[in-house]
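Morning. Coffee machine broken again, so started the prediction first thing and wrote up yesterday's gels while waiting. Chain of 410 residues, entered below exactly as on the submission form.
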Amino acid sequence: MSISRRNFLKGAAAGAAGTALATGVLVGGDRADARAADASVPIHGSYPFHGPHQAGILTPGPTDKQAAACFASFDVIVEDRGALIDLMKTLTARARFLTAGGVPADLGVGQPPSDSDVLGPDIPADGLTITTALGASLFDDRFGLAAERPRVLSPMPVFPNDSPDPAWLHGDLMLQLCANHADTVHHTIRDLTRHTRGAMQLRWKMEGYASPPRPSGTPRNLLGFKDGTANPTGGSASELVWVDDPREPAWAQGGSYQVVRLIRMLVEFWDRVSINEQEGMFGRRRDSGAPLDGDAEFDVPDYKADPKGHVIPLDSHIRLANPRTPATADQRIVRRSYNYDLGVDLNGNLQAGHAFIAYQQDVQRQFATIQERLVNEPLVDYVQPFGGGYFFAVPGVRDRADWYARGLLT
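Came back before lunch.
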């Protein structure tokens, strides 16, 4: 029998102080071995910055990802289109340099140093990817962009079971930073904010880490379950991610809709639930990750053989999120999510959870449709996102003459 959470939530909500809670999708994820953030991970090596699509979406994943991440939302504070173009050019130049690595400029002893030296005098590439996305609010009347807004880009709505905190929501611009080590992520956000001071202001940011596989296969989330077994890979991932709809603005072709959901997990409450109930809510075994009707993690659940949900409950997470029918095949999403830990709230409860990130061609057809199926699923008592937003990851920077969102702004 389920444990009532009413009294628990009264205390948790009162002490959360900026971490109000909501419901989010947990399905999908990253399947291959995520590298631990330790000294054994090489700091050299880079991913291509130039190309038709941005790195950090399907590169280096979706079956692999760097160990550390930051998701930073900004308000753009320039007043005209020309200044916005300058901001995008600056971001592009810094991202091009930082993802390749190199030696910072020497400005002489009479000037502040050009770099923080957090990573030493020679900046390593460290597998850094920087993914730039735009929020719906950037397409207001400030810059004359309203007619060029991606077709289904809007502020993230409040879904049933949500309790969003405005301090952790939305933004004009989202930067996703992923690298092999946490100090590279810190160095990168520090460099970017330094070079764009006066043009954009940090609104909120969440740092995350990727857990290594334990003992193998897909990494686990903070509820102890493997997270992302069914994430699309290869050609199927490409077909679900890149915008190619002729109804979209021409500049948006090759971009991708990005969903960010910051999900607090009530881990103390979860730890009081029986293993049978936990596995029934997910539809998978906790130890192996196998579906309840299978033996191994990547076995495909056979819903047709279990139409009444006697083995895998009809309201289990995997069954609602991915019904595995021809009609829902194009609703799947590609995940790039991380765990997070914010310490404790004022009541002494852990503020830890999941930074859920998803990419797709159409946020309404894909994420929103999945989310509507998950309304009132049993997991809503234990996973409560408190922020995030909808963004549009712009097409890639094709060469050294190109820059972020050039097709939009020129």
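The beta strands are 68-76, 129-135, 173-179, 200-209, 256-265, 334-335, 338-344, 350-360, 383-393. Going to sketch it on the whiteboard this afternoon.
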